[in-house]
Amino acid sequence: MSLGQELAPHLPFLRRYARALTGSQTHGDQYVRATLEAIVAAPGDFPRDVDARLGLYRTFQAIWSSANIETGPADDSEDDGDPQAIARARLARVTPLSRQALLLTAMEGFTPEDAAFLLDEEPEEIERLVADALAEIERQTHAEVMIIEDEPIIAMDLETIVRDLGHGVTGVAVTRDEAVQLAMQRRPGLVLADIQLADDSSGIDAVKDILAQFSVPVIFITAFPERLLTGERPEPTFLITKPFQRSTVKAAISQALFFDSATVPAM
């Protein structure tokens, strides 16, 4: 198998990484093209002591570093309101090396050891860089959260998790009518909603009523996720299964807020 054939399956994913890193499809693809041109010009320099994917990303990193472009993703202000543009803008505020470490591990799926090889760092340093990147992202995404949950213990647990993440809580509603009333009184930046509520009302209906008034990201929490994951109709983007792990709730909250334009940097 030729080198080109070995690299071909990995090119779409390198483009994904490059676009996320630059914040621009055009700029990202340009650096991928430069990477391929460098490989064609000097195939003997391609690292053959590692697998093809690692070698490809290693070559890209060399092109990226030599170009001195570590000033953050391009400004896509013309895409204001677009979730991907919002994410790129927030990612741009993460320091360059931390951003690369985060993307290589969280998006591209490299181990800390592989990312260390790609970035010429130690694995321990990669883990520190990723932690720094996540902390910066969380700092940028502060919100007031409304909880729709009729089980007191679960509601208290959710409220603790939300506050531990540095967010506020507008209140807890246990029925559809209470949820709508609370949302109108104190507009939330995120909604955590159970499906089955007290008085047999529906958290889904409560959320529909709220979304009819204004846009807000929603995370549903349910013991029956299969009912909302059929793929046959519009369904929630963010869904947590009961019983839940605290880490799962934290990850869902961070992800939902990261792509939402309504959240504001914490002061």
Automatic annotation (TrEMBL):
<feature type="modified residue" description="4-aspartylphosphate">
    <location>
        <position position="194"/>
    </location>
</feature>
<dbReference type="InterPro" id="IPR014605">
    <property type="entry name" value="Sig_resp-reg_PhyR"/>
</dbReference>
<feature type="domain" description="Response regulatory">
    <location>
        <begin position="144"/>
        <end position="257"/>
    </location>
</feature>
<dbReference type="InterPro" id="IPR053867">
    <property type="entry name" value="PhyR_sigma4"/>
</dbReference>
<protein>
    <submittedName>
        <fullName>Response regulator</fullName>
    </submittedName>
</protein>
<keyword id="KW-0597">Phosphoprotein</keyword>
<dbReference type="InterPro" id="IPR001789">
    <property type="entry name" value="Sig_transdc_resp-reg_receiver"/>
</dbReference>
<dbReference type="Pfam" id="PF22029">
    <property type="entry name" value="PhyR_sigma2"/>
</dbReference>
<dbReference type="InterPro" id="IPR053866">
    <property type="entry name" value="PhyR_sigma2"/>
</dbReference>
<dbReference type="Pfam" id="PF00072">
    <property type="entry name" value="Response_reg"/>
</dbReference>
<dbReference type="Pfam" id="PF22233">
    <property type="entry name" value="PhyR_sigma-like"/>
</dbReference>
